[in-house]
Amino acid sequence: MFLEFKKEVECVLKDALEKASYKYEDLELEESEHADISSRVAFSLARTQKKPPEIIAEDIVTHLEIPVEDTLIANAVSAGPYINFSVNDLFLHKTLIGIEGGIVSLEKRGKIIIEHTSANPDGPLHIGHLRNAVIGDVLVRVLKYAGYNVETQYYVNDMGRQIAVVVWGAERIAFDNAKKADHAVADVYIAANRMVEENSDFLKEVDELLRRYEAGDPEVVQRYEEVVKKCLSGIQASLERLQIRHDVFVLESEFVRRGAVEAVIEELKQKGEIKRDGSALLLQLKGIEKALVIQRTDGTSLYTTRDLAYHRWKDKNCDRMIDVFGKDHELVSQQLVKALELLGVKAPEFVIFAFVSLPSGSLSTRAGRYISADDLMEKIEERAYNEVDKRRTDLDDGKKREIARKVGIGALRYDMVKVSPDKHIMFDFDEALDIEKKGAPFVQYSHARACSILRAAEERGFVGQSPTGDYDPTLLRERSEIDLIKKLSKLDSIIEEAASELRPHLVAKYARELAEIFNLFYKDCPVLNAEDELRKARLVLVDGARIVLSTVLDMLGIEAPEEM
After folding, report:
1. Model's pTM, two decimal places?
2. Count of CB atoms situated within 10 Å of the CB of 240
3. Are residues 37 and 132 in the same domain?
4. Which CA distances in Å does 250 have to 153, 305, 563?
5. CB of 1 within 8 A of CB of 94?
6. CA atoms within 13 A on the CB side of 324
7. Are residues 397 and 319 in the same domain?
8. CA dist 368 to 123, 126, 362, 365, Å?
9. Residues 160 and 72 in one domain
10. pLDDT tens profile 397-445
11. Using 50, 70 and 90 to split pLDDT, how confident is the model at 363?
12. Which CATH number characterizes residue 190's domain?
């Protein structure tokens, strides 16, 4: 509803500027502590008009014509150099009606392919992969709410040397079938990697496996497929536990086998500045000091070359491409853009995230120094269970476990996405689960509280009270009531901003702020004990808060418990 109000403000303000004969470039609208929407346009006009901005603001307001009927604008006033617009009662009423009508974008937009996670199939996901996966998944959810057709892809690096090490090792070291599949693969990788590091002859055998796999040797291909499939099955199980699913798993080897990589190399030879380092081919890209190696000395391809073929294929199958990369891929992303430009392929949009750390320090799968996502999920769910067990002695163990799972996984997801992707985060179990820290449990608890109020209302026979039915919206006059409705109205604006700017943390921030405002409303305004007509109106508001809290939690991939 806030976007509808904003559009009306834009229309009214543009008309006033034209009537006053002011030429402008931007309306400079912003949210303000003093108004629902404020315009700073008088500041920029002051430079060209050679007048004080407060005089210009007053003049613009005299030319404003707010419609008498069907308007969402209550008034517009000048406040020094600012022009402040406020919403009216119709806006508040339509906000609640709109929430009950369902929060789904009716606008149908183009197709987006978003690639995220794409961890190497050499072991389980760790906390760094988690941030990639959660950022990507929240973006997918937000973009779908914004009306886009989104396909989620996991790009499988099945041709890297680390996979060859696992395949080589699997011939010498048995997988521990008592372990989860990806953990068993990691054990073999770690042990095999140590063997290879200690014996250079083994490295030659690994490189020979790489060459035979790229050439399509049937026996080697089968061995690779078994290892990759085994590891991915474990990774998918971890992602499922996090409420994350991919539509398509794309093997990079597909682009080698179908000749797409060779075609890319040949085209780059013709269109780019190629240098040779022995038998290796390097592509010098304009504005980037480090050349991009596109072919090894033995004639095999590299990850970056295969990635170019992958993006060319994606470009033909969508309107937009989005890649979620770690900060260590910044140079690669720059090289990718320049090389794709040579190939006549549109560049993907990048969401680059900074790393996550734990108090225990840095992580490395190769060295066997990592904390898996599975271990993190186990630990946080167990801690969540301990908290639930202390607070809810009235519940059976199964119910406690269910709530602990929702709270624990929710806390983990929220902390991965609560700040801008470009900012480093340190994950702390205790802070993530602390309701006072206003993370996921705080938002979930607010949703559970709304559900509890509505259950109690139903038990007392206060039913059939809907925004489309018999309630008086003008009774909602308390400051905390109006603040809550206004916050609810901004969901469409948050979805649009997060989708257009690819900033998933905005949804997490909005969820926290909404929960705070709902709790203030609950503290200030009795619901069940209010007079009949006021109770009806407040129950409508509680239900609206429940719906929006549930929606933003869904966008964050966090379950919305009805009790905690």
Report:
1. 0.91
2. 10
3. no
4. 7, 15, 40
5. yes
6. 32
7. no
8. 10, 12, 11, 5
9. no
10. 999 999 999 999 999 999 999 999 999 988 877 777 776 778 899 999 9
11. very low
12. 3.40.50.620
